[in-house]
Specification:
The protein is built from 7 helices and 3 strands, in the order H-E-E-H-H-E-H-H-H-H. The chain has 123 residues and is mostly helical. It has helices spanning 4-7, 38-44, 52-63, 72-77, 83-90, 93-106, 109-121; strands at residues 13-15, 31-33, 64-66. The model has no long low-confidence stretch (mean pLDDT 84). Helices cover 52% and strands 7% of the residues.
């Protein structure tokens, strides 16, 4: 049974980030992306003096449910120590941008951006 607060989060989204990663059936693997609660976001938010790219890397890594980016074998196979590092090793620049866009949409960043644009254009 879901916690009450989880009932109101957006459902996990499935998306093919890359056609390079295929399952046993030869079809591209769908990644599962979740929305973060603000409590989770507070743990990873941008730290003073930190590069914004590092923040977005952590943010994306924390939203990816599948594949398990913290899997020891996966990390070792890419020579990485963290989930955000492995994303940048696994994905091409274009694939990373697809992931970033999906994560932003899943966490309502894009919706907010549209509302702001609309509000600005109002007479």
């Amino acid at each position: 049974m879901k916690l009450i607060e989880e009932q109101y989060l957006p459902e996990q989204k499935e998306i093919v980030i890359s056609n390079r990663f295929v399952g046993e059936n030869g079809q591209p693997i769908s990644w599962k992306i979740k929305a973060l609660k603000e409590k989770e976001h507070q743990k990873i938010k941008k730290r003073e003096g930190e590069d914004i790219e590092k923040y977005w890397g952590r943010f994306c890594a924390n939203c990816v449910v599948l594949p398990n980016l913290n899997d020891e074998e996966l990390l070792k196979s890419y020579g990485c120590h963290s989930a955000d590092e492995v994303l940048k090793e696994m994905l091409t620049m274009g694939e990373y941008m697809i992931l970033l866009k999906t994560v932003r949409e899943q966490n309502c960043f894009e919706e907010r951006k549209q509302n702001i644009k609309y509000d600005i254009k109002k007479p």
